[in-house]
Amino acid sequence: MMLNIKQRFLPGWGVTYGPAGDGPFPAIMLLHGSEGAWAGWSHRDAVLFAAHGFLAFPYGYSSGGNMWNAGHIIDYPLERSVEALRALRDFQYVDERVGLYGVSRGAEHALLLGSLMARDELKGAPDTIAVHSAPDVVCGAFDARNARDAGDPGWQAWDVSKRAWTWRDSHEDLLPTTPIEIERYPGPLMLTHGTKDRMWSVEMTKRLEKRLREHGRNPTVHYYEGEDHIPSSAGQNIHYPLLLDFFTKSLVKP
């Protein structure tokens, strides 16, 4: 059986995965979590999206690292992701609709990007956003060299002197614990979270949902009973059909 998925290089940015043929295809930019760009999970998800008719771009935004080390998320300039989104929109194989999917730190990244682009009325914002295991506030910087499980020798909380994100060369409005103003984003939103998440409490997504509904929004929300920060195999078998259905309805032309 011939593999019906084709890799294409987005000039200056990296590899994409999509169906065979000339397209154009609805596109999704994927944002990884603290596992970093080298881990490959976002590439796995990109292949899954490609198998269902999307052109998927796993964008590696973490710095440093290698095949054995995740690198770090420190002072990442979010306007760089604006440039990546615009490049994806201009890619010859992409139609006019582009979505954004993030998990964990990638979910935080996606929510921040959507809210900041909406606030500043920037062109090229994602047409739809889906996030899994998202926080409702800005979190601190991440450096894999210092990361340990709680209780392990050398474990420490985040270094409060370091920031994860910048916007227009500033940390203003991006300090840890600052609420993410996702209610500013006007497009379709999907929020999912495991009810037994031991890293970021499901209460974070519940607060996001509450705030959105208070602002007259109607997000698509799914809570996965008994699932941790990353779903088990059984949880993923529930999550991915819902995710694909959401992107199909919000990105694929009728």
TrEMBL record:
<dbReference type="Pfam" id="PF08840">
    <property type="entry name" value="BAAT_C"/>
</dbReference>
<dbReference type="InterPro" id="IPR014940">
    <property type="entry name" value="BAAT_C"/>
</dbReference>
<protein>
    <submittedName>
        <fullName>Prolyl oligopeptidase family serine peptidase</fullName>
    </submittedName>
</protein>
<feature type="domain" description="BAAT/Acyl-CoA thioester hydrolase C-terminal">
    <location>
        <begin position="83"/>
        <end position="229"/>
    </location>
</feature>
<dbReference type="InterPro" id="IPR029058">
    <property type="entry name" value="AB_hydrolase_fold"/>
</dbReference>
